[in-house]
Design a protein that fits this description.
The chain is about 65% helix and about 10% strand. It is of the alpha/beta class and about 375 residues long. The mean pLDDT is about 80. It has a five-stranded mixed β-sheet, with helices on both faces. Helix 7 runs antiparallel to helix 11, helix 10 runs antiparallel to helix 13 and helix 10 packs parallel to helix 14.
């Protein structure tokens, strides 16, 4: 028993010696729980943005807007602005157009057609909007004939692509693929640098006439190629096993993939630079992976989160990665459409690379 306690005390002292690793280990659950709780809070707070084009300006339109406001954040806009919010800025899952004379037709027990402009990439939110419309229709019936049926008919129109519905796998497979590739690249870069530094391999390489940038570049290029291959294989598996659409522009998809893995590689070097010991790599790596994946829409749609957290998410490269994949796979966008997002990812990656090269330590402690 005394031997057991002695060994236990010795290991506790060793663990306590690396205070940074211990701090990461203790804080990780609190940070992740906080982020997850805040991210999921948006699904029940009525934060869903719902543009309304009110061309009727009658009592039925007023009741519909009031009823929808109980469940979503309703804004009255004109038709071009509604399409811009759904298809251009992609911050609203759908917009409702209430046509002229809807109230008159409704009160005369004549059906009217509401136009629903949708972005099927946000399928879950569109389902919620349709449910809200059913509730609003029941409330509108109170001002006419409560027994009237189908006085408000809904016509759905996709304004971001060619499909009216998106299978769940096409929203889930890219997100989890990004997460696993990120884990592989980050831990591969961080553990590789720490292990080779401890083994003395990097010291021997630095004695040779090899520039520092060439040494780091070679290691990062290897991890980049492995990560890119892994991402391609995951998408091909999703295509074969879950009928994942790869979009109508394979070159655009390839550009997004290359930019995403390049950004991951630079980001991994930056994280490795701040993990001073091997023991710090796991808690620090898991923290950034979970936070970036949660905020970036890898686990659930970005529009489920509160608006302020959606703004914060724009600082993470995973948000831009998922947006790029959704543009190609879910919205049938082409090369020119994804170039702005690819540019952001490449710039993000270059900045991370510069910071990583500046702070990474190659000499043994």
């Amino acid at each position: 028993m005394r031997s057991l306690l002695t060994i236990t005390w010795k290991d506790l002292r060793l663990i306590a010696r690396d205070r940074a690793a211990l701090l990461f280990l203790v804080l990780v659950p609190f940070v992740v729980v906080t982020v997850l709780a805040e991210a999921l809070a948006g699904s029940d707070t009525g934060s869903l943005l719902l543009p309304i084009v009110n061309e009727d300006h009658g009592p039925v339109a007023t009741v519909l807007i009031e009823a929808l406001s109980e469940h979503a954040h309703v804004v009255e806009v004109d038709r071009p602005e509604a399409e811009r919010l759904v298809a251009g800025r992609k911050i609203a899952p759908a917009a409702i157009v209430v046509p002229e004379h809807t109230s008159k037709r409704y009160l005369a027990s004549r059906p009217s057609t509401l136009l629903l402009l949708t972005d099927p990439a946000k399928g879950a939110a569109i389902g919620a909007v349709k449910a809200y419309l059913l509730l609003a229709d029941r409330k509108a019936a109170e001002i006419a004939d409560p027994l009237a049926e189908e006085l408000l008919v809904m016509e759905e129109r996709n304004v971001t692509g060619s499909r009216s519905s998106i299978p769940p796998a096409e929203q889930n497979v890219p997100g989890f693929s990004v997460m696993f590739v990120m884990m592989g690249v980050l831990f591969g870069v961080a553990f590789g640098l720490h292990d080779e530094r401890e083994w003395g391999t990097i010291t021997r390489l630095r004695i040779a006439p090899i520039p520092r940038l060439a040494l780091l570049g070679g290691k990062l290029l290897a991890r980049f190629l492995v990560g890119l291959l892994q991402l391609v294989l995951l998408f091909l598996y999703g295509h074969l096993a879950f009928d994942l659409s790869l979009g109508s522009a394979p070159v655009a998809l390839a550009l997004v993939m290359v930019a995403v893995v390049f950004c991951m590689t630079g980001f991994s070097l930056l994280v490795a630079a701040f993990a001073r010991t091997r023991e710090q790599v796991i808690p620090l790596g898991l923290t950034v992976i979970m936070i970036f994946c949660a905020l970036g829409g890898c686990w659930w749609p970005l529009y489920h989160m509160p608006p302020w957290l959606q703004q914060v998410a724009q600082l993470g490269f995973t948000t831009w990665a998922m947006e790029g994949f959704h543009d190609v796979i879910l919205r049938d966008r082409g090369i020119l459409d994804v170039l702005p997002g690819v540019g952001v990812l490449l710039t993000y990656g270059m900045l991370c690379l510069a910071g990583g090269v500046r702070f990474v330590r190659l000499d043994p402690a």
